[in-house]
Design a protein that fits this description.
The protein has helices spanning 25-33, 48-51, 69-80, 93-97, 101-105, 233-245, 261-274, 279-292, 294-321, 323-334, 341-355, 368-371, 375-379, 387-390, 398-408, 420-432; strands at residues 6-10, 37-41, 56-60, 84-88, 110-112, 115-119, 123-124, 126-132, 134-135, 147-148, 155-157, 167-174, 179-184, 189-193, 198-205, 208-213, 248-250, 253-255, 413-414, 417-418. By secondary structure, it is an alpha+beta fold. The protein folds into 3 domains: 6-246, 3-Layer(aba) Sandwich (Rossmann fold), CATH 3.40.50; 254-313, no CATH class; 363-432, no CATH class. The longest helix has 28 residues, at 294-321. It is globular and about 85 Å long.
């Protein structure tokens, strides 16, 4: 890897972001002032040897053009051998932009969804410019507090990655509790509530790295309130490019070190508390100790590994026996609403930030379902006013539960106990026979 990281920009597939475009002037200036060497890829991704001259390649929302199948194969091989990709889409994903980025990104365990992300509470001027503050601890999110995702699409992480040990994918940023999406189904836009939806991923694929997100507007110079200069947008882009291009150095020799996230944060705290000069010093001392005590350390590690395998087998055996019970428990859990008290408190806090007023929850969320009884239920049987009579619960079936919930739009069972409304309904039904 050269002294100055080199980034290649795709000029072959009608990419929106180019060095000459005035709408991305701030980002281009940042690249030059940060010491990156820049190159234009104008002949397509037709040669692995050419791509290997770049530390990272940027694909920025191609418009009405597709990657060829051989180009996708070469890009995948480029990442396998240690290259890095930054892949950016925009509102509507492949379907609206008329391209096939998902044929490439699916190799790395994710796809761009053909939707537009909105937020009904935390946004800037328009709901399609949601303010994002929900981040996973990662090198990419160091010192990041808020970013704006304007006219963006969401990301779907594919299920198969759990079985592939060569792919490590992390969801770096999520939408808030009030996020909703407009999804294009080929004919019209469909609106859906999508709280905490994935918006950015970081992938380690064999020896290479990939970052993907659906917000091309983050690079824009046209809107300072939502583009490159807005909130921490420029900082997270700087973190992304640094993670994709820069390794660790020792005596002039480049060594890429992929630290486990927990260890990385531990190293950062040790450097701060004990005044270490660099991460390299910590790594070199650790390796020297490991070298001098190699046999004993490896022996202990093998012993621990065998114990873990034994415990894992015991755990898997116990899980097989509990499979039926788990299935029943999952059905019960599915009945519980996804919004918890903490979620409502977060919504109230966001509302307070907008209006300047302070709001408080004045109901007991744990019993509200039982207290929510319609007057018509009581009128159907005046003798049901005594709660002692309600406690005598008639026998009921799964069909009764489904009939009650579909007709009343309420839960029949809450936290493992029949609700008062459901018990009233069962009594009325029994007495009417």
């Amino acid at each position: 890897m050269p002294d100055e990281p080199t980034i290649g920009l795709d000029y072959t597939h009608n990419n929106h972001l180019t060095l000459e475009a005035p709408s991305y002037a701030d980002f281009t200036e940042f690249l030059f002032s940060s010491g990156y060497k820049l190159g234009k890829i104008e002949a397509g991704f037709d040669s692995l040897q050419k791509l290997e001259t770049y530390d990272a390649i940027l694909l920025s929302s191609p418009k009405n053009t597709n990657l060829e199948s051989n180009e996708i194969e070469i890009l995948e091989e480029y990442v396998k051998k240690g290259g890095s990709l930054l892949i950016v889409s925009s509102s509507g994903g492949d379907r609206i932009n008329g391209t096939n980025l998902n044929e490439l990104t699916s190799k790395f365990g994710f796809e761009f969804v053909p939707d537009e992300v909105n937020n009904s509470m935390s946004y800037l001027n328009f709901q399609k410019r949601p303010i994002i503050s929900n981040f996973k601890p990662h090198i990419l999110t160091e010192q990041i507090h808020k970013i704006v995702f304007s006219s963006s699409c969401s990301i779907k992480v594919l299920d198969f990655i759990e079985e592939d040990k060569n792919i490590k994918i992390e969801e770096i940023a999520h939408g808030g509790l009030n996020c909703w999406t407009r999804t294009f189904n080929g004919e019209q836009w469909i609106e859906n509530d999508n709280p905490k939806i994935p918006l950015m991923v970081a992938v380690e694929y064999y020896d290479g790295k990939v970052v993907g997100f659906g917000n091309l507007s983050m690079f824009s110079s046209l809107g300072h309130e939502y583009g490159f200069s807005a909130f921490d947008n420029n900082m997270i882009i700087a973190n992304i490019l640094k993670w994709l291009t820069v390794g660790a150095y020792s005596e002039g020799k480049a060594i890429t070190v992929n630290l486990i996230l927990e260890l990385y944060h531990w190293v950062q705290s040790v450097m701060k508390d004990d005044n270490w000069e660099s991460i390299s010093d910590l790594i070199n001392i650790s390796l020297r100790y490991f070298k001098e005590n190699y046999k004993d350390i490896v022996k202990d590690i093998k012993k621990m590994h065998k114990e873990r395998i034994k415990k894992r087998k015991e755990f898997e055996e116990s899980k097989k026996k509990e499979k039926k019970e788990d299935t029943i428990e999952e059905k019960i859990i599915d009945m519980v609403p996804t919004r918890k008290k903490e979620d409502l408190e977060e919504i109230m806090s966001a509302l307070g930030n907008i209006t300047g007023e302070k709001y408080e929850i004045e109901i007991d969320l744990e019993v509200v379902e039982e207290e929510d009884i319609e007057e018509e239920d009581i009128e159907e049987d005046e003798e049901m006013e005594d709660d002692t009579m309600i406690d005598e619960i008639p026998k009921y079936t799964e069909e009764d539960i489904q009939e009650f919930e579909s007709s009343r739009n309420k839960h029949a069972v809450w936290r493992g106990k029949e609700t008062k409304a459901f018990r009233l309904w069962l009594k009325v039904k029994k007495n009417s026979k």
